[in-house]
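Hi all, posting the design record for the shared folder.

TITLE: backbone redesign
STEP: 1 of 1
STRUCTURE INPUT:
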């Protein structure tokens, strides 16, 4: 697996550089080390961030964490009686004649049902049991869980109970609290719930990576140059606003944007992109406009967030091959 760095100097010239994504004996982060090498700076010397206008990154950190199921241990908090809603899903049968249905594993580690209920018009059917909610959330915190996804019935529009649970979770000390009315404020409990769980599951991974990059750049000077990240929708956002749900196709989306612009410069408006990395392979299509989707499925997880339409396969140049006794399988690790 490799990391590619492209720099534009004050005269407008483009400089390119490539190095191994993982080389712990020589550097901690490939992207930052590549910046050092392009600038001709030693490993111990501070990076002159005041001379850099911006650092723009596309990363597969979230994609890899999702494919390999290496996100943060997450607790799903939902209305009592609906703990199995995400597991049941929509009962789709994409392979009608498959006699052995294997459901994808859920991202959350455990489920907490809360005594509360609002109807579809926002009327209180059952008031929120604050006392027991505090006790139960504290118990999970004591067990080591630090990420929470709060998904209540009709919380997309009537979210006073979600707000109260969010306040309790933050007071207890949970480091990542994702609430459905902010992450995906639309109907459909399953899609809203899975998107919120993904956000809670991946956001800590993203934030850890951002802090790592900032520490390499120098925490006291990181604000001098802008640190921007590519989102799944093909646009850039400030590092402070980069969330797990918008990061899954961060790296591949940048590749699609580049493919589109380069093909247009070459006179082509209908192209197919094939992007093989170390962990995954991404296929995309461009016909003069960017194809986007608001509902997608990545690595067995349903999402509702704007994304460039990309098909991701959990097999790349560095994927490990296994023999299960009957056939070979590639990836996802």
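Okay, here is what came back for every position:
SEQUENCE:
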């Amino acid at each position: 697996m490799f990391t590619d760095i492209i720099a534009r100097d004050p005269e407008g010239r483009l400089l390119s550089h490539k190095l191994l994504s993982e080389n712990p004996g020589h550097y901690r982060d490939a992207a930052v080390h590549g910046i050092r090498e392009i600038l001709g700076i030693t490993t111990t010397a501070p990076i002159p961030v005041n001379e850099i206008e911006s650092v723009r990154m596309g990363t597969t950190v979230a994609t890899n964490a999702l494919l390999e199921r290496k996100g943060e241990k997450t607790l799903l908090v939902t209305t009592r009686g609906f703990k199995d809603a995400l597991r049941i899903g929509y009962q789709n049968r994409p392979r009608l004649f498959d006699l052995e249905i294997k459901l994808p594993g859920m991202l959350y580690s455990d489920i907490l049902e809360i005594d509360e209920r609002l109807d579809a018009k926002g009327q209180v059917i059952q008031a929120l049991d604050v006392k027991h909610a505090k006790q139960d959330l504290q118990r999970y915190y004591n067990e080591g869980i630090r990420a929470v996804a709060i998904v209540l019935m009709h919380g997309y529009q009537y979210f006073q109970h979600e707000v109260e649970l969010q306040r309790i979770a933050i007071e207890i000390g949970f480091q990542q609290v994702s609430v459905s009315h902010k992450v995906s404020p639309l109907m459909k409990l399953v899609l809203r719930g899975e998107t919120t769980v993904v956000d809670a599951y991946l956001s800590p991974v993203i934030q850890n990576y951002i802090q790592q990059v900032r520490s390499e750049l120098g925490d006291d000077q990181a604000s001098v140059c802008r640190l921007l990240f590519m989102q799944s929708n093909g646009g850039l956002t400030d590092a402070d606003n980069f969330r797990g749900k918008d990061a899954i196709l961060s790296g591949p989306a940048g590749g699609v944007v580049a493919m589109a612009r380069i093909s247009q410069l070459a006179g082509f408006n209908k192209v197919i992109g094939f992007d093989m990395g170390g962990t995954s392979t991404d296929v995309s299509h461009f016909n003069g406009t960017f194809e986007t989707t608001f509902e997608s499925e990545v690595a067995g997880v349903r999402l509702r967030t704007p994304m460039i339409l990309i098909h991701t396969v959990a097999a790349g140049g560095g994927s490990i091959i296994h023999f299960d006794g009957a056939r070979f399988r590639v990836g996802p690790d």
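COMMENT: The radius of gyration is 22 Å.
Let me know if anyone wants the other runs.
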